[in-house]
Automatic annotation (TrEMBL):
<feature type="binding site">
    <location>
        <begin position="186"/>
        <end position="193"/>
    </location>
    <ligand>
        <name>NAD(+)</name>
    </ligand>
</feature>
<feature type="binding site">
    <location>
        <position position="278"/>
    </location>
    <ligand>
        <name>NAD(+)</name>
    </ligand>
</feature>
<feature type="active site" description="Proton acceptor">
    <location>
        <position position="451"/>
    </location>
</feature>
<feature type="binding site">
    <location>
        <position position="319"/>
    </location>
    <ligand>
        <name>FAD</name>
    </ligand>
</feature>
<protein>
    <recommendedName>
        <fullName>Dihydrolipoyl dehydrogenase</fullName>
        <ecNumber>1.8.1.4</ecNumber>
    </recommendedName>
</protein>
<dbReference type="GO" id="GO:0004148">
    <property type="term" value="F:dihydrolipoyl dehydrogenase (NADH) activity"/>
</dbReference>
<dbReference type="Pfam" id="PF07992">
    <property type="entry name" value="Pyr_redox_2"/>
</dbReference>
<dbReference type="InterPro" id="IPR050151">
    <property type="entry name" value="Class-I_Pyr_Nuc-Dis_Oxidored"/>
</dbReference>
<keyword id="KW-0547">Nucleotide-binding</keyword>
<keyword id="KW-0285">Flavoprotein</keyword>
<dbReference type="InterPro" id="IPR012999">
    <property type="entry name" value="Pyr_OxRdtase_I_AS"/>
</dbReference>
<dbReference type="InterPro" id="IPR036188">
    <property type="entry name" value="FAD/NAD-bd_sf"/>
</dbReference>
<dbReference type="Pfam" id="PF02852">
    <property type="entry name" value="Pyr_redox_dim"/>
</dbReference>
<dbReference type="GO" id="GO:0005739">
    <property type="term" value="C:mitochondrion"/>
</dbReference>
<keyword id="KW-0520">NAD</keyword>
<feature type="domain" description="FAD/NAD(P)-binding">
    <location>
        <begin position="7"/>
        <end position="334"/>
    </location>
</feature>
<dbReference type="InterPro" id="IPR004099">
    <property type="entry name" value="Pyr_nucl-diS_OxRdtase_dimer"/>
</dbReference>
Amino acid sequence: FASAKEYDLVVIGGGPGGYVAAIKGAQKGLKTVCIEKRGSLGGTCLNVGCIPSKALLNATHKYHEAQHDFKELGIVVKDVSIDFGQLMKQKEKAVKGLTGGIEFLFKKNKVDYLKGFGKFASPNEIEVDLADGGKETIKAKNVIIATGSEPSPLPGNVIPVDEKYVVSSTGALSLEKIPKRLIVIGGGVIGLEMGSVYARLGSQVTVVEYMDRICPTMDLELTSTFRKTLEKQGLKFMLKTKVVGGSGSASGCKVEVEPAEGGAKQVLESDIILVATGRRPYTGGLQLEKAGLSTDKQGRIDTNDHWQTKVGHIYAIGDVIKGAMLAHKAEEEGIAAVEQILGEAGHVNYHTIPGVIYTYPEVASVGYTEEELKSQGIKYNKGMFPFMANSRARTNNDSEGLVKVLADKDTDKILGVHIIGPNAGEMIAEGVLGMEYGAAAEDIARTCHAHPTLSEAFKEACMAAYDKPIHV
Ligand code: FAD
């Protein structure tokens, strides 16, 4: 490989973890290349994840509002209908604009972009099967593996995904038509977001979930409110239910279910089945063994607290390592890993990674849930404030939900924030910032918030946690 190009940093995978790491590396003066096999940058998130799902959620929410909420506001609309083709086109336009934007950022920051499949030839050599044919081998002083994740099949692959009738989230984002009936297997974030999209478009949506509640890691108090609001929107839930078989074809889909603790089998019929039972790390074809690396039982690459694998110059970040599978977590790790490579103090506070569900209302949380505090014996004060008592929410005629703040009983330091309600995904940023700076509930309660805003509900929940709120 005498003539092989040598880079200070080779990033394998151009998702939120990889592309952010590549840009940061180049900004810091490292000669950097990013290898991406999919033909466009942005990874799962921009191509088949966060971005297209939010485009569909936004459009279908507006459709739902026009049908159900406008009248109350005195807005009369007639013959509201859906142009499904245009809905999909707008989604694709958003995706194209954003993925193209990253290519522009690569050029601007002088990141080389290799379109192709990267794999280890040795710990310091990466072989790339180029998308337009041929091979290229490059030398790497440092490598960041950011190869992400893929949808997990059902245990035992009892209903194989064909992306036509039995779809993963990827297929659900690009259905050819609105299904009359949709069965969603898995009551987690992705299943509920996609279930909401199609319920708003008129599909009869049934969510089958093995556990006794949806989103099992969510703060318990919020879960039942959340389920009830989704039920009001027409989603049906079959909890404590196990999927044992099924199939899908042009003539229809069948899902065989039985109670989780065993019992009589039942067959559910549908037009489309969405398998949304989680995602698993992806390292296929990477030839990790040639770099002296392997994966754990769950397929993850093991790293230390500095995102370093057991081979010192090879790092790994994002969905392919432990922790929450979230785009912003991958991005934080990307920057921190580059800083570590440069001998700087890259750090990620995993306790302040927010999680958001972009249904309506949205659900957002950061830090400990009440159940976690109880099980760890941490003493806490709890402050709750309903949007029903928030003037902006009432003005907007959109007052479902609440803010819940959990603060340390002795120090008043905020330990967790959980919000269900309008704009929860934006509002949680204040909780994250507060926790990152070690704020006490009283600090937020004494911080002036503009009136009338939804964020006053957060202030009042903090007032309730350390003293008393004003408006309830
Ligand atoms: P990825 O985004 O998976 O990127 C990895 C990239 O590496 C891929 O593009 C892949 O093609 C490439 N690659 C893999 N192997 C190779 C190889 N050998 N050579 C070259 N390239 C390779 N997260 C949020 O935070 N908010 C959301 O709202 C949200 N919504 C989601 C909705 C859906 C439907 C889905 C599926 C996911 C959603 N996520 C969301 C999760 C989010 O998409 C992921 O956590 C995030 O994309 C992980 O980033 P990553 O860089 O680790 O991996």
